[in-house]
Structure to design on (308 residues):
């Protein structure tokens, strides 16, 4: 057991806020699920491979995706889970193992998919229903699901009662629950360090024919972005030249780590997502508007999410 795992939340069950912080992050949920299905223990490299494959749907996943997952698990997610006593993470050997405390959050990981709830809806409404600052004088232990009965689900809904519009749950199952957002993922290969590509057709192909409202286009990277502008070929070259001139190529502190601080800064100027109107499955773009993928650290394979 690591030193940090022994010092955090050692005198009682996990608080609601701690459970919320763990489960609101999809990568942490995938890491826990991967460890459970992998007999509870593996090294970080193996875990990164498994999580990256689950996130991309590719086996093996792209190399840059594996590296991104490895860094985030090692630097952020596993230390957090270790601090809460959910896993035991040895930073020297890079081995991670589930601890008994994981049972305290398993009820939520089982109940939410079982009843067709979306994590976004549950966690958002849980946060709204709970005051930002609450009395930590007593800890409340979440119910154990046991034989997959309705007890854990009832307790879950008590905290979000009103937000989901469900005030009473019958043993037969849930009533009217919000629809889970639909998501499609595709990859785009870039062929140079600064590369602006028109991905409008691929985004529109990913939008369901019956979709109305808005669609969010999101890129899962910190050195690439999404923009809306004209896709005339010479203008795309102008965008690349502008970004090249806007940020110095070197001289940044982050370059001591991996030499691509300029790529991160250019992506920061662009932004990681755009939300667009959609009617009957068609993007409601202006005459000259297109959806652009802005590569700032290529050539790479980039993952794009389209969520309705």
């Amino acid at each position: 057991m690591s030193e940090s795992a022994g010092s955090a939340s050692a005198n009682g069950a996990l608080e609601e806020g701690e459970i919320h912080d763990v489960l609101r992050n999809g990568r942490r949920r995938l890491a826990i699920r991967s460890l459970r299905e992998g007999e509870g223990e593996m090294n970080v490299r193996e875990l990164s491979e498994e999580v990256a494959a689950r996130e991309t749907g590719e086996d093996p996943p792209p190399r840059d995706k594996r590296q991104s997952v490895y860094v985030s698990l090692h630097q952020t997610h596993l230390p957090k889970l270790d601090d809460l006593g959910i896993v035991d993470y040895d930073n020297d050997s890079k081995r991670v193992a589930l601890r008994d405390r994981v049972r305290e959050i398993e009820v939520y990981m089982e109940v939410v998919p079982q009843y067709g709830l979306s994590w976004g809806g549950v966690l958002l409404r849980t946060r709204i229903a709970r005051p930002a600052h609450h009395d930590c004088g007593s800890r409340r232990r979440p119910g154990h699901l046991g034989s997959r009965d309705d007890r854990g689900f009832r307790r879950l809904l008590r905290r979000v009662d009103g937000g989901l519009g469900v005030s009473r749950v019958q043993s037969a199952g849930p009533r009217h629950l919000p629809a889970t957002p639909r998501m499609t993922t595709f990859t785009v290969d870039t062929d140079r360090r600064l590369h602006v590509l028109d991905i409008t057709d691929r985004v529109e192909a990913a939008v369901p024919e019956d979709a109305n409202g808005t669609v969010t286009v999101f890129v899962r990277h910190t050195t690439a972005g999404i923009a809306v502008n004209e896709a005339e070929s010479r203008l795309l070259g102008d965008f690349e030249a502008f970004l090249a001139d806007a940020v110095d190529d070197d001289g940044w502190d982050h370059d001591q780590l991996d030499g691509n601080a300029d790529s991160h800064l250019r992506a920061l100027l662009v932004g990681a997502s755009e939300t667009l109107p959609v009617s009957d499955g068609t993007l409601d773009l202006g005459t000259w508007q297109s959806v652009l993928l802005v590569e700032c650290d290529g050539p790479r394979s980039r993952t794009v999410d389209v969520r309705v």
User: Anything to note?
Assistant: The longest strand covers residues 183-189.
